[in-house]
Design brief:
alpha/beta, globular
């Protein structure tokens, strides 16, 4: 089985689901290597990114079969029946000693979604210990908040066996007495499908279906769910990295050209080098994030070199770059975690939003606010987008 064949099979299943005719059985080959990447990047993300309730149902039925293929203690009918119960919001009526809030694993989702639930949990449970359960790099976004403690969880990306390896660790961690678990549609639980604690201690926000056909953003929908479940109205996204917060204002423009391993979010060359040249003409120093290294860092460095700009680069943690964003005069980037940090911090921003499969994904993930300028890219016309950026910057 080749990588190309895996992609074709995953795409065929996705197309059937989108057409309203999901297969009764998940092709077993998608559970085996080397098809693990296609299972998640094409089928699972393809179903989730459309924010369509019917596709949530298809995901539950098909992925419960995938789990059962690799875990003897999982049975699809039982997983599905449990999911039908936990997807219905219910009011939390007691005051636990510990509140675990699960990470969404991706940084942008932890800002736009998870942080809203952290904020609501702090207000609803003033005497409880609030624990962020997730990777260290994600926790660093909140490590400066004395109310938020860390419950480290290592999540390995790869095939389904790699991703399910966290299940037993989660069950042990979340068995803490007198505790509840708030799950914001986390990858740790495979979007709520993995039972990690007793149902009467588990509260699940089905972000892919909640809000139905509305055009509301994910932070707005998360706040609505928090009001319905925790009884706390008006919760908003926030970040609080270590160190002085908020940071002192600086003279710079913060730039992120990261796309989170999704090349569809990029515009074709020479867009990035021309964007940097355009931004530098304002006379404001540029501070550019090079991400976690590798291809992204090389691409960003080449774009800066070709543009001829004299820019500073950030090669550290995303939490450190969040502080740079918070102190910036302007933030510019693709649809990524940086735009959500800028929106939360009230920093004027230009978000170049491309690569979304359906309009509802754009509606859910776009940043909002008086200082948010979102350029929706339905077709990658770099001259048109550069002109729109120039109009905003000027």
């Amino acid at each position: 089985m080749t990588s190309t064949s895996c992609k074709e099979i995953a795409q065929e299943v996705l197309d059937q689901c989108i057409a309203g005719n999901p297969p009764d059985e998940l092709p077993r080959v998608l559970v085996e290597e080397p098809c693990g990447l296609a299972l998640f990047s094409i089928l699972v993300e393809g179903l989730a990114d459309r924010f369509e309730p019917a596709l949530c149902d298809a995901y539950v039925r098909l992925f419960s079969q995938a789990i059962a293929c690799v875990r003897d203690d999982a049975e699809p009918a039982s997983l599905i029946a449990r999911y039908e119960r936990i997807r219905r919001p219910s009011l939390i009526s007691h005051d636990p000693r510990r509140v675990f809030v699960l990470s969404r694993v991706t940084l942008g989702a932890d800002v736009a979604v998870t942080s809203v639930l952290l904020a609501a949990a702090k207000q609803r449970f003033p005497q409880a210990e609030i624990l962020f359960a997730g990777p260290q790099k994600n926790y660093e976004l909140f490590a400066g908040d004395p109310r938020i403690h860390h419950a480290p969880v290592f999540y390995k990306r790869g095939g389904i066996r790699d991703r399910l390896a966290v299940w037993d660790d989660l069950k042990a961690l979340l068995a803490a007495p007198d505790s509840i678990v708030i799950d914001p549609d986390s990858r740790l639980t495979q979007l709520g499908l993995l039972p990690v604690c007793a149902e009467d201690r588990y509260y699940f926000f089905e972000s892919r279906a909640y809000g139905g056909e509305t055009t509301r953003t994910l932070p707005e929908l998360t706040a609505a769910w928090a009001a319905e479940t925790l009884g706390i109205a008006g919760a908003k996204p926030y970040v609080h990295p270590p160190g002085p917060w908020p940071p002192a204002p600086g003279p710079h423009t913060a730039v992120s050209l990261g796309v989170g391993e999704n090349p569809a979010k990029r515009l074709p060359d020479p867009f990035e080098e021309e964007l940097l040249a355009l931004l530098s003409r304002s006379g404001t120093p540029l501070y550019i994030d090079r991400g976690a290294g590798g291809e992204e860092a090389d691409r960003v460095t080449r774009a800066a070199e070709r543009s001829g700009v004299n820019a500073a680069f950030w090669d550290g943690s995303f939490a450190g770059f969040a502080a740079i964003i918070a102190g910036a005069r302007l933030y510019v980037g693709y649809d990524s975690a940086g735009q959500h940090v800028a929106a939360e911090c009230g920093v004027p921003l230009v978000s170049i939003f491309a690569g979304f499969p359906v309009p509802r994904m754009f509606d859910r993930w776009r940043p909002t606010g008086d200082r948010c300028h979102v350029i929706r890219v339905d077709r990658p016309d770099i001259r048109k987008v550069l002109a729109q950026v120039a109009a905003v910057v000027s």
